[in-house]
Design goal:
The protein is an alpha/beta fold. The chain is built from 8 helices and 6 strands, in the order H-E-H-H-E-H-E-H-E-H-H-E-E-H. The protein binds farnesyl diphosphate (FPP).
Length: 247
């Protein structure tokens, strides 16, 4: 083997895995998963919720620092009331069982406009956030009644009400008033179920993110699928020993 071959071999050996700092997932395909099995849509959401717990736990285990999941969008109110109620009930059950996050050392936070949510859900959300505030593991954001445009409108309203002048309006000033203020922007966005859209998800924060799409329906999504996505991410962000970032 010549010098050049050895050089490349050595380089490959010291290649390190690069984990994203912040993964954002659009949990899509619950309805189609249920339909394929002639089950009601509620069965799809129940299965999707199981996958959500598994993936959150797995992210925590492998050392991902931030995960944001899209649980309910500002547009999802257009669904039949029974389906909206079903998703809210899944959320209630998740929050009542504190082993889901406290027991996992997961810090829970909600992003989105809480105003129209039921009072008991708002209370459960606040309690879960307070109870898990000291957790040192995964920071898990659940996007609930969340819309990216709505979030930006909300930030602009805050800027106006705080009396900021044109010279104070910077990208940072806007980032600081988003629901994700203080968190790193998502650097990896995953959308299963064969759709290739962002659907108003984290539209400001995703400006520089890498994207990963797959045909897998969310309830079928496994930790092994996340591994595959992470390996793609790592290849796209290949770093060699001592080099922080190749971009
Ligand atoms: C999109 O699939 C999924 C949703 C709108 C709901 C996602 C909610 C969960 C997985 C439960 C989350 C629970 C917690 C505790 C965070 P879809 O219904 O649009 O699927 P389809 O496109 O196949 O119809």
């Amino acid at each position: 083997m010549g010098d050049k071959g050895l050089f490349f071999k050595k380089k490959k050996q010291i290649e390190t895995t690069v984990l994203p700092k912040h993964i954002a997932i659009i949990m899509d395909g619950n309805g189609r998963w249920a339909k394929k099995r002639s089950l009601p849509r509620s069965a799809g959401h129940a299965a999707g919720s199981k996958t959500f717990k598994t993936i959150a736990r797995y992210c925590n285990k492998i050392g991902i620092k931030y995960l944001t999941v899209y649980a309910f969008s500002t547009e999802n109110w257009k669904r039949p009331k029974s389906e909206v109620d079903n998703i809210m009930n899944i959320l209630r059950d998740y929050l009542k069982d504190t082993d889901n996050f406290k027991g996992e050392n997961i810090r829970l936070e909600f992003i989105g406009d809480r105003t129209p949510l039921a009072e008991d859900i708002k209370e459960l959300m606040l309690k879960a956030e307070a109870d898990s505030a000291d957790a040192t593991g995964l920071h898990l954001n659940i996007a609930l009644n969340y819309g990216g445009r709505d979030e930006i409108v909300h930030a602009v309203k805050r800027i106006v009400s705080e009396g900021l002048g044109p010279e104070d309006i910077t990208e940072q000033a806007i980032s600081d008033r988003l629901y994700t203020a203080g968190q790193p922007d998502p650097d990896f966005i995953i959308r299963p179920s064969g759709e290739y859209r962002l659907s108003n998800y984290l539209i400001w924060q995703s400006a520089y993110a890498e994207y990963w799409f797959s045909d897998i329906l969310w309830p079928d999504f496994k930790p092994e699928d996340l591994d595959k996505a992470l390996s793609d991410f790592s290849r796209r962000n290949r770093r060699f020993g001592g080099v922080e970032d190749n971009k």
